[in-house]
Write a structure and sequence with these properties.
The protein contains twelve helices and eight strands. The protein has 374 residues and is an alpha+beta fold. It folds into three domains: 154 residues; 62 residues, Roll (SH3 type barrels), CATH 2.30.30.60; 85 residues, Alpha-Beta Plaits (2-Layer Sandwich). A five-stranded antiparallel β-sheet has the order 4-3-2-1-5. A three-stranded antiparallel β-sheet has the order 6-8-7, with helices on one face. A hairpin with a 4-residue loop joins strand 3 and strand 4. Helix 1 packs antiparallel against helix 3, helix 3 packs antiparallel against helix 4 and helix 11 packs across helix 12. The longest helix has 38 residues. The termini are far apart.
Length: 374
């Protein structure tokens, strides 16, 4: 009878105590979360209730398993398994707790500061810190698991003796990985690029969508994802449109005939911008910036609060200005002058007739593509 009751009491008691303690701790954290809605700490800590209960259960079973006298011939193997589960669940709990603390710190900072650039910078740093903590805890947990085996402890001395040589070899072999790792830390704490920044990389315009310790992902305007090593951003130049203030100035270029009404175009540009919600009202302008024998280049200058709104303003101005010119001033559209070829005096045409005297040049309007993407 004792052989049945003893294992039942040890195992059952460990499970019951785990459930009771886990339920009590979860209830306390739920009440604390309701009393303090200004901080998400307690709600985030509740995500660790499963690893917490697993740590409690394996710790109690590991400490009392010898008293249960259950499967005595396998006690060494079962004890080692419980130890491995305890180490793994403790690492899981540590990662969840660190993530809750880091996320709470970021939430408080974001609520206290209204500067989007600073908030994105802290978000980038917080994300990378969380990844570093998870990696360190995982490596320590794996090392602790390996050291539970006697063969690994015996080989520890020889491993330490050859650590210098192995370190040099590993450093050479993982040179690219290590460079990306340090580049990721440099990006996080050097404030070079942040999550949500608008960047131009290799001619591609997009938004920084993800930053890890080794690679960075840029989401383009057409929903593509460009993944590149973070060392690229520390070794090559790139455009960061969100650096400092997100406000931007953009241009729209039009190639028009020399007779285009520039003053009326300035007034029309003002009317277009007043009706465009994306324009921030800071500045606008319209000037003739270049001239060729057949056309002149007109530049419209507009401003917006960020890159997305600037794109909207530019396409709106380009479309409505061209529509207004085509409706009210069609003569301002670019034209190509054409004329009959004039042969030298005394030269005969292929049909045998003498060359005709020079005639007045004729012109006709040809409407090639007006502008490219400005």
């Amino acid at each position: 009878m004792e052989n049945v009751l003893r294992p039942l009491i040890v195992v059952g008691g460990s499970l019951v105590l785990t459930l009771l303690i886990g339920w009590g701790v979860d209830r306390l954290m739920r009440q604390a979360d309701e009393r303090h809605p200004e901080t998400p700490l307690w709600g985030l800590l509740r995500r660790g209730r499963i690893p917490f209960q697993l740590v409690l259960c394996t710790a109690m079973l590991r400490g009392s398993y010898s008293e249960a006298r259950l499967f005595p011939s396998y006690s060494v193997g079962i004890g080692r398994i419980l130890t491995l589960v305890l180490i793994g669940s403790a690492a899981w709990l540590a990662i969840r707790t660190a993530a809750a603390i880091v996320e709470t710190s970021y939430t408080r900072y974001a609520a206290a500061h209204r500067d989007p650039a600073r908030v994105r910078r802290v978000r980038t740093q917080v994300t990378l810190i969380q990844r570093v903590v998870s990696a360190v805890v995982g490596v320590v947990a794996v090392a602790a698991m390996l050291l539970t085996f006697p063969a690994m402890r015996t080989a520890g001395a020889s491993l330490l003796a050859s650590a210098g040589v192995l370190g040099i070899v590993a450093g050479i072999a993982a040179q690219s990985t290590l460079s990306n790792l340090f580049a990721g830390l440099q990006i996080a704490f050097g404030d070079m690029v942040r999550l949500g920044d608008t960047v131009v990389v290799d001619g591609e315009w997009g938004t920084v969508d993800e930053i890890t310790l080794t690679f960075l992902t840029v989401r383009t305007w057409d929903e593509r994802r460009i993944t590149m090593p973070v060392s690229y951003f520390t070794s090559k130049p790139f455009e960061n449109w969100s650096r400092g203030s997100p406000q931007m100035t953009g241009t729209v270029f039009l190639h028009l005939d020399h007779s285009a009404p520039v003053e009326e175009m300035r007034a029309q540009l003002r009317d277009i911008l007043r009706e465009c919600p994306a324009w921030d009202g800071r500045h606008y302008g319209l000037d003739v910036t270049d001239a060729t024998p057949s056309t002149m280049e007109v530049r419209a200058l507009v401003t917006a609060k960020d890159a997305d709104d600037l794109w909207t303003v530019r396409v709106t101005v380009r479309e409505q200005l061209l529509r207004w010119l085509a409706k009210y001033h069609p003569y301002a559209l670019p034209r190509v002058n054409t004329a009959d070829a004039i042969l030298p005096p005394g030269t005969q045409h292929p049909n045998g007739a003498d060359a005709a005297p020079p005639r007045s040049t004729r012109a006709r309007a040809v409407e090639p593509p007006l502008t490219g993407r400005g």
